[in-house]
Design brief:
The structure is a homodimer. Chain A is of the alpha/beta class and about 725 residues long. In chain A, about 40% of the residues lie in helices and about 20% in strands. The longest helix of chain A is centred in the middle third of the chain and has 23 residues, at about 350-375.
């Protein structure tokens, strides 16, 4: 696609004059009234009611309790006017049947576990339906072996053990939670020849070292255990027997034994109460001092003399799970789905994870429903999704996505929630194209602290950083890693995504104590931050659904990618020296992408505005009608904007894990939850593979040039005239 | 004193050409042979023998065991040919008579302490002569009150308690050791109105969090207690009843009650075993998270509900202490004393502190004695000093110094040792004028790790810093703070000083476990690092005693002070804004001092050399005789160099504590052991006192200009000619 020089020149002039103005999607008079109407709906008392009902009983994926929550959510969606269905998938999952962990030294037994999760006073802990602590997708097994302590179970931790002369082959590896995804711990132990894995919660990470423990405070008590999946989701998320396709009734299945996503050695989680006697009696060398946790003795690495006898019997089988999908069809662009998803299944009660998020989604949906009842209809199709079996491996979202891959090619956005509100600190992650969109929304939502959420967010970020931090700096928005349902949407299908939460001292993650009693004492006790999250969440949906021009900022995206490339270039120089591949073409492509994005920003910032932004003294913006009258082809522009996001997918996916196709983001390979940026390039550098680095740089360059060319291809007939008129009078 | 322009110009030319060559004091052929002879003497087996004898029984200052060690040291000095005397002072000191600490909550008693220091297996712990843990100079007292936890007891910790609304008045303040001098903890508690102080050793500082505890490892076991003085030595060190004059038989005494150096509220140290039940049951708010230590519960600040009943009965009185002073008179400059001192008294056995240092001194003295036996005599007087009652407050060294103030005006240097060798890591502190001297000596001493100590030291420093650190960087030498016997020499009398040690995992500081059994397992087990320290220590004495020109580098000193001024200027700008006093004159004076120092360096670097430095391709240096033949007046130069050090003393001393007279260094005011640099200025800034800051800047400017003028005043008759000849041929 060739570039029209005049268009570029004018657009660049405009872009320069307006600096980095992000695309603005403010509402016109009536739109503002609609937003106000929406914002008035989410309600703390209603939220509390939803949470009380949804956390009334344990509801692990596939259980009767889970089914009940699906029905409650579906009933509510229908009540509020959405077309709602409960979508069932049969997926391969396990529940624990028998778990025992016995530790002994040559002198005799020292621990018979696991100890039941129990504190002095908690009304929920004794329900017989509580699933005992386990790791999803651990195989059954009986192992007896000496124990080796391996810190966080990161690649560098196993490397350190090798340097220390400690052989983990045939041993039971004891690792602490933290720093990475627990599946990486299991994978590393498996790859280094360990016989089994015990994963415990050190009080330094989320126990007494952090603060008072439950029920006195919010942190993990000594018997508290973190359940969790160890599915190798960095290979594929979802049902491990349908890697890459949906688990529909007629679906082909591979044998779980052949699935690359299923661990081969047994693993089970432990409390620090049960771990302490094991770790205290480990012999061998002192652990490196940075491996020391907060238990009251010096940590050694072993092996032995402590031996553990591990007995795990897992109840594997195909189980029904239930996504609840609610939708309202868009009037103008029904194929451009705006999807808002939160999972509903919990390891036990899941007051924070995920019911605080599910509750916020319900209140957002109720707000949209309110608008529907008054006759309003969205321009794009809105879908609220209550996912199931997220905890086992993002299964509900991934199977649904795999069933709707074709339709998702034109999805406008995926908005995620998970742990909705566990405290007062707003946090967000998003693709660079949606960061400005999210910040703008924060300016429209009031904070329980007073003022707007945007102000409170920026103040908090400034307080956390040094006092000398730039007081006008924008609040930071992180990169999307993995560990929640946005993963497949972004990393497989290229749907631009955001993820928000309101954080606190959440020390009972994945334990029986993440329940309504904890939440009322230490979470969002009066549901004001749930209300805030519901408002932000719903406003994202509302603005995205009704935006005349899709609010994607590709200038920001291109600049962000250029930053990733700069960092990778330094890594490559360090790794390969003179033999480092050249980054020039990739950097040029990133800059071209940013420049093309800036040209579009300059157009749309002043064209299709529907509400005056009183904070900017610009000439009255043209209406959408005006834009179109002057030759602005909104349909075409939106199609290009959508295609640009998809242009960031690698045609062949990532090396070694082709299901992950996004060129800019992927779940970190062996590092866990945090995002890997420009993963093809960075992972090749980390593997010291210069040839693949060069090849991935080339692929990335292609992707960026393709995206840039798409944007450059937008060339409305009278754009020059239009753009000149859109330049603010004050600047002419 | 006016400056001769020609001298300055030529000297500066030379200085520029030679960059920053420090004064070099290498030995001529015969001198090198003498050094080699000296270095061959210090011996690991002999060192072990000294230590065994000196740690055979407890020997706290003033005890019969202490007297025995004085006699052993004196006998050895005499054996080796030194004029030796045991100098007695009667000083005000306390031993503990009765100590009890009982803790209880409303529900009943929770701790009856202190628990005796005891581990499973230690041959020394049960000696009845072991002094029970106490804080020297704590008054007697009976206090019962609620407990408040105050972290390290720093000014900012008490400030934080105030912000939290916790009133410490009338309370028993519990603080942990670390971060500052324990006397500061007591002082701050007293000043804020607390009734008493408990100071405990948190396992995060030197217990199991750091590594295995004694007897399995070198770190502090649960019953281990850190004894120590809380004398307000930042007011004056030494006998508190003779502040500023020696405690001779006929000395005037002030009442201890009137002494500014004696704390007014009771204090006693505790083990973490005894502290744990108290701290675990404290109520009130959670402590700030950075106040959390390594005990296995969340630390709260109180007050109460735990109450402590503290009973302290101290046995105060005038007690005899014994310095052992050994000397050999100098042949050419007998009044320019070169003093090497180490204390000998210990809280209990003191294998590391101070006997590893005393042992190294003995081996250094034996080496010098060896030279004496072969007929060699030093040019300057050498004094080896074995101080007493250092632990109570640097008493032996301070009283002796106060008795010899006049003679010390011409002392050439004071070389300190304290904890001689507790491991393999060489560490040094020194005045800037002696840093090059010390680094040069490290080049002449072999390391047990192979190569020279200088190489090993530099490699270790590089390893500790980032891998990208400059590989040719000099090893760092610290500033002299307080906490050992160099304090009075430097800070009161202006004698340039160094302090060296070989460090390790020394976790049993000031406890009964700092004994020969610990040392043989975890200290310098084969005494090779004691040998290394003895060699460095003795070589300092030897080179300083025989140097024709005193090896002081004032260029380095001036630059260092300019650096302190730069930092202080930034603090002042932060504190006072526009009203900050001007630093220009002081900075100019520091630069003038450095420049005058550079001129002298350029002269002496090429004049009185006695051994060729093969690493530099310069013209053959002139001999001392040549220097003198050409009009270089060595006597005058040395007098000026000595006077320059004394010129750094403030005529009126520091504000608020005039006994401390050094303009550049003082013990940190309320911060403890670490040095306060340009203390008059920096402490006035910290106190937010702009007027005093300006006045102290003026005083400092005067000091620096006076020092510079002294150096500039050295003007040998034919110096121009001499200097030009001394310029390396390659550079002409």
């Amino acid at each position: 696609m060739r570039l029209d020089r005049r268009f570029v020149l004018v657009a660049l002039l405009c872009a320069t004059l307006l600096a980095q103005a992000p695309p603005r999607m403010p509402a016109e008079g009536s739109e503002r009234a609609i937003e106000e109407q929406f914002l008035s709906v989410p309600d703390p008392r209603q939220a509390e009611q939803h949470m009380k009902i949804l956390t009334a009983e344990p509801h692990v994926a596939g259980s009767p309790g889970d089914r009940k929550t699906a029905e409650y959510v579906a009933r509510k969606f229908r009540e509020w006017g959405f077309d709602t269905e409960i979508v069932e998938y049969k997926v391969w999952m396990n529940y624990p049947a028998e778990v025992s962990v016995d530790a002994f030294t040559p002198a005799g037994a020292i621990m018979h576990g696991p100890t039941k999760e129990h504190v002095e006073d908690d009304p929920f802990q004794d329900d017989p339906r509580v699933v005992m602590p386990f790791n999803a997708y651990s195989p059954s097994g009986d192992v007896e072996a000496e124990v080796v302590y391996a810190n966080y179970g990161r690649p560098e931790d196993f490397q350190k053990l090798t340097e220390m002369g400690v052989d983990v082959r045939g041993k039971i590896v004891l690792v602490r939670y933290g720093e990475n995804f627990r599946g990486v711990k299991a994978y590393m132990a498996q790859e280094t020849g360990a016989a089994a894995v015990l994963i415990y919660s050190d009080p330094m990470e989320d126990g007494y070292f952090r603060g008072d423990v439950y029920p006195k405070g919010p942190w993990r008590p000594d018997t508290g255990v973190q359940r969790g999946t160890i599915e190798y989701g960095f290979e594929h998320p979802g049902d491990p027997t349908t890697p890459g396709w949906p688990s529909t009734a007629e679906a082909r299945r591979i044998s779980p034994r052949d699935s690359p996503d299923v661990p081969k050695i047994p693993a089970t989680p432990l409390s620090y109460r049960d771990t302490s006697p094991i770790l205290q009696r480990l012999g061998g060398a002192e652990s490196p001092r940075e491996w020391q946790g907060a238990l009251p003795f010096t940590y050694h690495v072993g092996p032995g003399p402590v031996r553990v006898k591990l007995h795990l019997k897992q109840d594997f089988g195909y189980r029904a799970i239930w996504d609840v999908i609610a939708r309202v069809r868009g009037t103008r662009w029904p194929d451009e789905w705006v999807i808002a998803g939160v999972h509903r299944d919990a390891w036990v009660y899941g007051a924070v994870d995920p019911i605080s998020g599910a509750t916020a989604m319900l209140e957002a949906a109720r707000g949209i429903g309110h608008l529907l009842q008054s006759g309003w209809r969205p321009k794009r199709t809105i879908i609220f999704a209550s996912w199931d079996a997220e905890e086992q491996g993002l299964i509900g979202s991934t199977e649904w996505l795999e069933q709707h891959e074709k339709e998702l090619e034109s999805a406008a956005a995926y908005f995620n929630l998970d742990t909705g509100a566990s405290g007062a600190d707003f946090r967000a992650s998003a693709v660079p194209s949606l960061r400005g969109f999210l910040r703008d929304i924060a300016k429209s939502v009031p904070s329980p602290k007073g003022g707007t959420l945007y102000d409170a967010w920026r103040t908090a970020v400034r307080r956390e950083n040094s006092p000398t931090a730039n007081p006008t700096a924008e609040p930071q928005i992180g990169t999307l890693g993995s560990g929640s349902d946005f993963t497949s949407f972004l990393d497989h299908s290229g749907v631009p995504a955001t993820d928000i939460r309101s954080s606190g001292n959440y020390g009972v993650y994945h334990s029986v104590f993440d329940n309504f009693a904890w939440y009322k004492k230490f979470g969002d006790t009066n549901f004001l931050y749930t209300q805030e999250i519901a408002r932000v969440y719903g406003l994202q949906v509302l603005r995205m659904a009704d935006a005349d021009v899709l609010p994607y900022n590709y200038e920001a995206y291109g600049k962000e990618v250029a930053g990733y490339l700069d960092a990778a270039q330094k890594s490559a120089a360090g790794q390969f020296g003179d033999k480092a591949p050249k980054f020039d073409s990739a950097l040029a492509a990133a800059r071209r992408f940013a420049q093309a994005g800036a040209a579009i920003n300059a157009l749309v910032a002043h064209a299709p505005s529907r509400v005056r932004d009183e904070t900017r003294s610009v000439a009255p913006p043209l209406s959408l009608a005006g834009f179109e009258r002057q030759g602005g082809d909104v349909e075409r522009l939106n199609r290009i904007l959508l295609a640009t996001e998809r242009a960031l997918l690698l045609p062949n996916g990532l090396p070694r894990r082709p299901w992950f196709r996004h060129a800019i983001y992927a779940p970190a390979d062996l590092k866990g939850y945090s995002a890997s940026t420009i993963p093809g390039v960075n992972e090749a550098i980390q593997r010291n593979d210069a040839a693949t680095t060069a090849q991935q740089l080339e692929a990335l360059t292609g992707v960026l040039n393709r995206a840039a060319a798409l944007l450059e291809g937008f060339h409305p007939a009278s754009s020059e005239l239009f753009v000149l008129r859109a330049v603010p009078t004050g600047l002419r």
